[in-house]
């Protein structure tokens, strides 16, 4: 029980919220609510990945000096090594994000008021939309849903 | 959602009035891919509709062409289908009436009183039904297959893109 609450707390602190995005402008309005153009805040990228990257760098520097085997040997180290290579890829990705493309990521954020949706009997539509977007993940022809989250008053899809 | 930078197909058509045959062929193929993809996943979009009535004055034509503005361009100029606010799969969990019923039976069974919830079951049911009445004409009733309608509308749009008007 205690373990689970700690886990849930960590989930909550990591989870996305509106604060992770900076609103640029409103790009659409409809019966459902508004669609806003948002920019991902740099702070999030930094706080998510920074703790990992210094450790990473150290490890990747250490391995060649300890073993002369190099990358070939690295791959056969098993579980502990898998943990090591995964963050490496992650940092590479972040590196690309921050230096390759200088601009932070922008998304379209759909904001829907929970109260309005319930009053309007939109619950079924919302569920269908959300389930569809999840089902269509990776599709070339459907606008991809990046993340969905909620707070007390609103539902968000980005 | 990913931000698609290229605007929508409707905007393109408004700007250009007429597309060439080659362009139309290309976008037709892409529209078909989009709709086909949704159908393959077991959903119907229900908001793919031109809704142009031939008796409408010209200034109203564009405002009634809803379908094309649900097709957005990405940065490479390819189309993607968006706005699944009316999409339906036929599953009860996607059916407003079913969910409404379930909520009310749950409230009744548990005796929970929701603060400021003044809409009773009867009112709420009529609201949901009214909402269904306000659905676009080609949006089907539950269980009905509207896939043919999607295709009909797409075809009409294509014809319009080439010819330029609603002839």
Structure description:
The complex is a heterodimer of chains A (158) and B (167). Chain A is of the alpha+beta class and 158 residues long. Chain A has two domains: 12-41 and 104-157, Phosphorylase Kinase, domain 1, CATH 3.30.200.20; 46-100. Chain A is built from seven helices and five strands. Chain A has helices at 2-14, 42-49, 52-66, 71-74, 79-100, 114-119, 123-135; strands at residues 21-30, 33-40, 106-113, 148-150, 154-157. Chain A has a five-stranded antiparallel beta sheet with strand order 1-2-3-5-4. In chain A, strand 1 (21-30) and strand 2 form a beta hairpin. In chain A, helix 3 (52-66) packs across helix 5 (79-100). Residues 46-101 of chain A have low confidence and may be disordered. In chain B, helix 2 runs antiparallel to helix 6 and helix 4 (96-110) packs antiparallel against helix 5. A two-stranded antiparallel sheet of chain B has the order 1-2. In chain B, a hairpin with a 5-residue loop joins strand 1 and strand 2 (79-81). The radius of gyration of chain B is 19 Å and the shape is elongated. Chain B folds into two domains: 9-86 and 144-163, Transferase(Phosphotransferase), domain 1, CATH 1.10.510; 92-133, no CATH class. By secondary structure, chain B is mainly alpha-helical. In chain B, 46% of the residues lie in helices and 4% in strands.
Brief overview:
By secondary structure, chain A is of the alpha+beta class. Helix content of chain A is 51%, strand content 21%.
Q: Which features characterize this protein?
A:
heterodimer, A: 158 residues, alpha+beta, Phosphorylase Kinase, domain 1, 2 domains, five-stranded antiparallel β-sheet, 5 strands, 51% helix, B: 167 residues, mainly alpha, Transferase(Phosphotransferase), domain 1, two-stranded antiparallel sheet
